[in-house]
Amino acid sequence: MNRPVTGTRARSVRAIVVRAALLTLLALAATFALDPFRNYQLAVIAATFCATAGLTLLVGLTGQLSLGHAVLMAAGGYGYVLVAGPAGDAGLPGPARFALGLAGALAASGAVGVLLGLAGARLRGPYLAGLTLALVIALPAAATQIPGLGKDQGLSVPFEAVPGPLTGVMVVEQWHAWIAIVVAAVAVTPLVVLRSGRAGLRMRAVHGDEVAARLAGVSPARVKVGAFVASSLSAGLGGAVLAVVTQNVSPGRYSLAFSLLLVVAVVVGGLGSVGGAAAGAALVVLLPWVVETVASGLPADVAQRLSGNLAVAVFGALLVAVTVAWPGGLAAATAGPRARLAGRLPRARPRPADPSSGPSSDPSHDLRPEPRPITER
Amino acid sequence: MTAAPATAASTATAATLAVDGLTVGYAGAPVIDGLTLEVRPGQVVALLGANGAGKTTLLRTLSGLVPPRSGRVLLDGDDLAGTSVEDRARRGLAQVPEGRSVVTELTVEENLQLGALWRHPGRAGRRKAVARAYELFEPLARRRDSLGHQLSGGERQMLALARALVARPRVLLLDEPSLGLAPRVVAQLLGVLRDAARDAGLTVLLAEQNVTSALSVADRGVVLSLGAVVADAPAADLAADPALRHAYLGF
Amino acid sequence: MDRLVLLVSTGVARGLVIALFALSLVIIWRAARIVNFAQAAMAVVAVYVAFAVEAATGSYVLAVLAALVTGALLGAWVERGLMRRVSGRTPLPGMIVAIGLVMVLQSVLGILFGPKHRPMTPVFAETPLSVGGVPVLSRYDLFVLVVALVVVAGLGLLFNRSTLGLQLRASATAPEVSRLLGVRVPRMVTIGWMLSCAVAALAVLLLVPTELGLNAHSADVLFVHAFTVAVLGGLDSPVGALLGGVVVGVIVSLVTGYASAGLAPLAVLALLTVVLLVRPGGIFAPKEARTA
Prior knowledge:
Mean pLDDT of chain B: 85
Helix content of chain A: over 70%
Number of helices of chain A: 15
Number of helices of chain B: 10
Oligomer: heterotrimer
Radius of gyration of chain A: 21 Å
Shape of chain B: globular
Largest sheet of chain A: 2 strands, antiparallel
Low-confidence stretches of chain B: 1-11
Structural class of chain A: mainly alpha
Strand content of chain A: under 5%
Largest interface: A-C, 53 and 51 residues
């Protein structure tokens, strides 16, 4: 149990970070190919990805269903504004204001995450779900009742302009997409690292059999709280990014419906799969927009009835269908083809398809086929 | 406890329980491996063997709680494949499962009523059946309105047995009924079981770790090891023959 | 003082409806050991059908029957068609399917009927009766009270005095043992769902005349309140649901009256949090393990 395994672990962490960096650069480059509206959508997807990545680990690995992850994003958004706003008023330069705002977001969402995590550690599934449901329904009330939160209109967010050197190269939507992509990378990469190591094993152990986990020296309460905190920090960053991109934080954006969309994203993408969380985030941002575009071609009153509702109906149906027929979600469904594709690439070694890992985040995709350490201590 | 009233007429006759080439468990690691066994009507067979030999799995498979990978379970020659757990019970295949199987949130009376329900949907018939159970198991009559979790271990096992018998099964499976009970209570319990079996014409398959007690009420002993039958002999022989006992039962 | 009496009596009246809905959660818990997150949405569908029946026949009684029957049929259909196909090892897949069902039901209702609230005239007058000059409960409130008491009594008789109730209770607490005794456990679970959804439909039908009207989201808040009540009173206890409903109703009414309507959801959230964390077993429940 005391064998030094840092060598292997450090290598796989480095592999994860390298891959994350490569994907980030790829995404940044891709923004040049997109028009401003698409870049805006990409930014929203990246922000949503921050939340879904954490949620998929929470639900997929520890089995705790949170129906209120929108509240964590809201905490991040409000936390950002409440710090960045005064910072901007005090005359701080852009980057400092942004960094401080992010710190505020992390503090707020982390605090809520700790409280929810403590609740989650004590409560069984349906009770935690019910509590988070009550929380997200109470959010609009909290925003209107607590002074300083701007009530229903919310608070406006300091504008992040394109920095001097880049003004000739890109417009503001692309700049916001860059911010979103980088923040998402910073938020999600630690989650992938966590999942690939001991923390991930502990989470799975607690979900599988708590008594056995406790006998093995794992504290279920601590693991559950830790999982909640990790996912809430990531969601908080997503909320902050969303605030910057939409320039507004208001309770209407973080509704029960949005929380449910986050659940749809992680279930359809595949519980526990970070790549699936990315695919799911894209799905829940893009599909409603597709439906709106299609519906706008229809007569006005039909369009009005379909708007909002049709996308939700499709998502609900997807949720049911995926849970009943393909419990592993997109990640499991595409695991076979992805493995075959990986086998054809020059450098990768053939390895069995792992349905719990996504295409962009598989930690064991090291270049050397080393055995995955399972007895790290 | 009183002996079973000799005049208790049985409306259900004992059945033959047969197992043919039964395999249960995972592909590479079967828990029951090609087991074949027959229990003739009215026989009391003791199913013996160490922990993990497959006794509980066999009983659960017989009742339909676990699907076999291959092989058949036959009740009076009828293949039970595809018959649900509750339908097997309604065909007269009853089980007293391992552990405290009394429904703790219900009273003694309610537990018995529950057991009698499928055979006696009418209140009158059910009341008679439950009254008969109280005659056989006097201590239960005194605790009629106690909740299951208020009973002692011995009382609970007595209730579980009474409840299984109240619907006049044709085959009775028992999984370690003596577990955790004092020897005197075990003796009483098995005595009642033997009497009930004899008078009601019941086929009994009794899985037990308490070898001596089991062999004292059984006609035949079947020893399981690693999911297969390794010995099948009259109970008296098994009890008396030190070589057999030592080889298969470890003492 | 008058204001207090009025607020309390309004709270009691609203609380009885919440209690009825909470009763439906108690039923499905006692029969199947689950919390049905789609309960409110399914009840709303049943009430839309009841509206159609009342519009067509003009009879409130037929509308009530329609709500009960539709609720029961929906419960059976969802349980047999959906929930049985889902792994029951953890409650998670069942909850996710229920949420998907809510999304589908609410959005389809929105597409079919639009966002307008459809008002319903209450079958009895809603003006409060006066006792010694102080406005107390209205005739409609008394009607709701009678219905709630009848349902509680009926459920009590069913669960504790009938053989069906015996089988329902046994199937929920000891499904394997019950099956070994010949109890048709799957059928009991379906019956539990049918009863539960019928009572939920009745609760929503009684609620609608006191609110703006019927639309796809009418029962969302009711579900949260009823869930809180069920947790407060213990999911196992019909009496707990009744008392808990009145308590929650009065709390919401007092908060709305003395503070502001906006604070009510926060008050409910605070109450739920306190009960879940401090007395997880509920005030009336036996030792039901709710903690992880």
